[in-house]
Amino acid sequence: MKPFDYTAPASLDEATRAGARPATRFIAGGTTLVDLMKLEVETPEHLIDLNPLGDGDPSLGTVSELPNGGLRIGALARMSDVAWTANVKERYPVLSRALLLAASGQIRNMASMAGNLLQRTRCPYFRDTATPCNKREPGSGCSAMQGFNRSHAILGTSEHCIATHPSDPAVALVALGASVRVRGPGAQPSAERTIPIASLHVLPATRPERETVLNPGEVITSIEIPPLPFARRSLYLKVRDRASYAFALASAAVALDLANGTIRDARVALGGVATTPWRSTAAERALIGKRATPATFRAAAEAALRGAVAHRDNAFKVELAKRTLVRALTQVSA
Amino acid sequence: MRMTTPPTDPPRRDAEGYRVPEFASESHWDPSWAECVRLYNEVAEALSASPPPAVDNQSSDWSRRQFVATVVAAALAIALTRRVARAEPAALPRPATTSGSAAAVKLRVNGRELSLDLEPRVTLLDALREYAGITGPKKGCDHGQCGACTVHVNGRRTLSCLTFAVMQQGKEITTIEGLAASAGASGDALHPMQQAFIDHDGFQCGYCTSGQIMSATAVVREPWGLADDDVREAMSGNICRCGAYPGIVAAIQAVRKASAADQGGRR
Question: Which residue of chain A has the CA closest to B94?
Answer without folding.
Answer: A3
